[in-house]
Amino acid sequence: MMDLYREYILNHYQNPRNFGKMEGADSSVKLSNPLCGDEVKVYVKFEGEKVSKINFEGKGCVISQASASILTEELKGKKKEEILSLDKNFMLKLLRIPLGPNRLKCALLPLEAIQKAIKNGL
Amino acid sequence: MFDSQKIKKDFPIFEKHPELVYLDSTATSLKPRQVIDKLVEYYTQYSANVFRGIYKISEKATEEFEKTREKIAQFIGAKPEEVIFVRNTTEAINLVAYSLGRKIVDKSSEIVVSLMEHHSNFVPWQQLAFENGARLKIINIDKQGRLLFSPEMITRRTAIFALTYVSNVLGTINPVKKIIKQVKKANPNTIVIIDGAQAVPHLKVDVKELACDFLAFSSHKMLGPTGVGVLWGKRELLEQAFPFLYGGEMIREVRLEETVFKEPPYKFEAGTPAIGEVIALASAVEYLEKLGMEKVREHEKELISYALERLKEEFGEKITIFGPEEAEERGGVLAFKFGSYHPHDIAQILDSLNIAVRAGHHCAMPLHQALKVEATTRASFYIYNDKEDVEKLIEGLRRVEKVLG
Hints:
The structure holds 2 protein chains of 2 kinds.
Chain A: H1 7-14, E1 27-33, E2 38-47, E3 50-59, H2 62-74, H3 80-84, H4 88-95, H5 101-121
Antiparallel strand pairs in A: 1-2, 2-3
Helix pairs in contact in A: 1-2, 2-5
Chain B: H1 4-8, H2 13-16, E1 21-22, H3 33-45, H4 56-76, E2 83-86, H5 89-104, E3 110-114, H6 123-132, E4 135-139, E5 158-164, H7 176-186, E6 191-195, H8 207-210, E7 214-218, E8 229-233, H9 235-240, E9 251-254, E10 259-261, H10 275-291, H11 293-315, E11 319-321, E12 333-338, H12 343-352, E13 355-356, E14 358-360, H13 365-371, E15 376-380, H14 387-404
Parallel strand pairs in B: 1-13, 3-4, 3-5, 5-6, 6-7
Antiparallel strand pairs in B: 2-8, 7-8, 9-10, 11-12, 12-15, 14-15
Helix pairs in contact in B: 3-10, 4-10, 5-6, 11-14, 12-14
C-alpha cells in the first residue's frame, strides 16, 4: 500500500501541474466531497472537439490533488467525447495504485469535475 | 489496567491479524469468542423464529431472546418490559422522534439538542422541528468541547431535550445526571432522550439514577453483534406513543375494521427481529459484567490520559487534540489534527502499519463546522487496547511525517 504514496503520486501532490485559476476558460466546475472536505475546481479550454487545456485549484488529500494534477496533463488534447467516456478503470490504470471503495471517491473527484465542465460547455 | 494480552486471546480477530492495532472502537467494537460462539449456537442448535412456534426449538429461541431483554434491563437498571430491540441507536432515536415526537411537538414547541450530537441524535430532531414547525435550539460548547448548558434554555415550551452522554468526536463525558435534573426542574414535562451509544459500552449507566425518559444504544459498539440496537423508555411514555412499524408480531388482534396492538415493548417490535444477534448480545453484556464497568472506565481513563500526555510530548504544537484536557472529563476517544496532513492520508499511512483509525467528520458535521475543520483523524480505545498501541500510533505519525514530508 505504500505504493499509494510512491514518488509519482507525491511528486504531483507536492508540485501540482497546471495549478491555479485559468483566465478565459470556456467552462469551470467546482466539486467537493463532503465526507472528507476534498475540493477541486477545474477550468477547461476547448478547441473545436478537443480539450486544449485544463487547470485546477483545490485542497484535500494527496490522492485527490495528485489525481487532479495528473489529469490536467493526461487529458490535454483529447477529444471531449473520449474524456466523457472515461470511468474508474481508466483512473485506476492511470494512477497505477490499488484503491479501496472509500478511497476511490477521492481519485474520481477531479475526473468527475472535468467531465461536468465538458458537459456544461457542450 | 487490564492485561490486554490476556483479553486479546478472547478476540479471534487477533489470531487472524496478530499485528492489528485497532483504534476504531467508537465506530464498532471487536467481538469476543463468547459472542461469536453464542451466534453459532443459535444458528446450529435452535434457529427457529420467536414467539410463534409451539415446538421445542422455537420455545428455546424465545427463551434465549427474552433472556437478553432481562440481561439488558439489569445492566442499565431498568425493567425488561421497557427494553425494546431495534436495529441500532439511529433507529432507536428515530423511533422516539416518530412515535412520540410527532405526537407532542407542534408549532409552539421547542426542541433542544447540542452541537456535539452525532447526526443520529441531530437530524431526526431537526427534521421533526421542520415538519411540525417547532423551534430547534442548540446548546453550544466551550473551547475544550464541554457543554455550555444553562437551565434558562428550557422553557415551558420545551417538548424534547436530546443529548449525547459521551461525544463520539470530542470524547466529552457530559454531566448528564446533573443536566437532566436541571431540565426536569425547569420543565417536568420535557421529554429527555439520552444517546448512550458511546456511554453504555464504556461506563456504568443506570437509567433510574440518570432519571432520563429514553436511552438509546447499539449492540455492536459494546462487543455484541451488528444489527441490534436498544431503546429503553419509561413505561407510561411507551404506552402513550404510536407504534413505530406496523405488521406482524406487534399486534394482538387484526380485523377488517380495526387492529389492537400488543403492549410495549412488543408494540414496537414488528416483524422478525435479528434473533441470533439479540441472543448473542447477552453474552457481550456478560463479558462486560465480568470485567466490571468501573474497571472498564478506569482502563480507558488511564489509556486516554497516557495518550494525551505522550502525543503532546512527542508532537507539541504540531498536534491539536480536540475535547477536554482532563482525562476525568473524557472517554476513550481522541480526535486530532496533525500538522497540515489530510486525515485521509494519515489514516492510509497508519493502515500500512496495520493501525486502524477513522478519518472524516465522524457523522458530526455541525460539530466539525464549529471546530472549523473539515475532517479529523480519530483514534479510540477499548478494553483490548494498551499503552503499546499508543506508542504504535506515535510511530505511525512519525511515519506520516516521513512519507509526506
